[in-house]
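[audit] Reproducing an earlier prediction to check determinism. Same input, same settings, fresh worker. If the tokens differ from the archived copy the diff job will pick it up downstream; this log only records the rerun itself.
[audit] input (172 residues):
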Amino acid sequence: MPPKPLYDLSEVDLEHVEFGKDELDVLLPQTDVMRQLHGIIHNDADAGVAVGFRDVREDEFWVKGHFSAKPVFPGVLLVESAAQLCVFLWRRKIGRTEAPGRVMLFGGIDEVKFRDAVFPGQRLILVAKEETVRVRRSVYDCQAYVDGKLVFTGKITGLLGPHMPEVYPDGI
């Protein structure tokens, strides 16, 4: 039996984008082919929840080899997509003020379950909810959906990484 949704997606306009590429460029350290989060649909700072999306395209680097006859979005990229949503939450809540110029790195991936395959042409809706948020270590519950169906659940822990002026040249 699937877990309870972290957030009621019927309350969100899934076509509305609150934070697009330009805003994410300021907040996320990943760029180019490693940017796995394409936008933020909803951000409820008081509830500690964000809803984002990732459009899975047919022209991506992994399509020819995973698997060539019927490409399936790699699970590691799905986890990375969810982790980038967690970084968004962390940076917006405390990262820019309490750890300016520092990145959040993977600290752990727990309780992960892949519940269905994701294919090119689909939009992945990602949900992350704060469990514990601190500067040095934060934990988030995550879920992902395609067409309203739960395809992924997991818990992601982020750890405070080094100061990287090359990534955050404005120092925040």
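[audit] rerun output stored. Observation attached for the diff report: The chain is about 20% helix and 35% strand.
[audit] end
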